[in-house]
Structure formats: structure tokens, C-alpha cells
Design goal:
196 residues; mainly alpha; 4% strand; globular
Length: 196
């Protein structure tokens, strides 16, 4: 049986032993905003080694890494899509990595470079051919694009347009993407009416 993971609880300074689900819960709640916890992230490699055969634990392991703040997480998520425990054909894996990245990590998903949007659009396009319903749910991460600053709006709109022009786009994804793109016209019209 795998040994428990030993960490220092940043709140108390006490050493604690954490089982697979306890450890992941602890890391999720502390790693996002706690500098010492972010410094502990190399412990994730040890955790992976110990729990790699437990699919539910690995889902949480993917989520933890997708939620680390900062633009560098885009590269991490991209590399994790090639991880042996990740499968784009498994909806739980997709949600745990890509869904968490796009919905729970605003600093990485909305990085000024647009790299988070590009990665997500690539994955939506790939998913479209495999599982249109999951692809549509992932595409919905772009739905609020009109609420962001003009630079991010431009970047998100470009990725929505790229998805919309993908060959063989399913009706599910097409509906989500075209509704999101149409929202831009609705917002522009509303702003125009307010200005009058």
C-alpha cells in the first residue's frame, strides 16, 4: 500500500501525514494562495508516484496543477495533456485538467498573451471530433468573453472564430460558439443604445 504523503501544514507549522484524498483536498485549498504551499508543488511528483493507479486521485492531481496561478501554468497544462494518465477521450480527465484550467484559474486562462485561450481552443477543436458534448461544455468557457478588457476580448473572439471555422464542427459546439460570438453584437448594440 502507498505510504501517506508528509507535508508541513502552513497554517500550524505542524508536520502532517495525508492520505490520497486528504492530501489533495489540503493542497487544493492551500496551494492556490499560499506561497509556502506553491513552493511544495514538487511534492506532487512524489504524490503521483504513490497514487498513479487511483484514477480519482489522479483527476484531483491534474486539477491541482491546472489551478496553480500564473501564466506558466499554460505550459504545464499543455504538457499534462500528453501525460500517460490523461486521456482526451475520458470526460473526467478532460474536466479535471482542461475544465479546471479554464474555469478555476483566471490568472493562467486569461494570461495577457492569449496562450491560455489558444491552448483551450486547440483542445476544444480536438475534442469536437471525439466527444462533441464535452467539447461544447469546454467551449462554454469562452461565453463571458464580452465582460473582459478589449485586449482579452480580441484574443477570445479570435479563438472563438478559430473554433467556429474548424472543419467538421459538431452542432453542439457550433451552437455554443456561435451564440458566444453573437453576444458581441448584442453587447455592441446595447452599448450603442446607451450612448444615444
Amino acid at each position: 500500500a502507498p505510504r501517506p504523503l508528509r507535508l508541513v501544514d502552513p497554517a500550524s507549522g505542524q508536520a502532517v501525514e495525508l492520505g490520497p484524498r486528504q492530501g489533495l483536498t489540503h493542497l487544493v485549498f492551500t496551494a492556490v494562495w499560499c506561497r509556502p504551499c506553491v513552493d511544495e508543488l514538487p511534492a506532487l511528483a512524489d504524490f503521483e508516484e504513490r497514487w498513479r493507479r487511483d484514477a480519482l486521485v489522479m483527476d484531483k492531481w491534474f486539477t491541482i496543477q491546472a489551478c496553480v496561478p500564473g501564466a506558466g501554468t499554460v505550459d504545464r497544462v499543455r504538457s499534462l495533456t500528453a501525460h500517460p494518465a490523461f486521456s482526451i477521450t475520458n470526460p473526467n480527465k478532460v474536466r479535471s485538467l482542461l475544465g479546471a484550467f479554464s474555469t478555476l484559474n483566471p490568472t493562467a486562462f486569461h494570461a495577457r498573451s492569449g496562450a491560455g485561450y489558444q491552448l483551450h481552443a486547440e483542445q476544444v477543436i480536438a475534442l469536437n471530433a471525439l466527444n462533441p458534448q464535452v467539447a461544447a461544455r469546454m467551449a462554454a468557457s469562452f461565453n463571458a468573453w464580452t465582460r473582459y478588457d478589449p485586449d482579452r476580448q480580441r484574443l477570445m473572439r479570435a479563438e472563438l472564430s478559430r473554433i467556429a471555422s474548424a472543419a467538421g464542427l459538431s452542432p453542439d459546439v457550433s451552437e455554443i460558439v456561435h451564440n458566444a460570438l453573437d453576444m458581441g453584437a448584442v453587447v455592441a448594440q446595447a452599448l450603442s443604445q446607451l450612448a444615444d
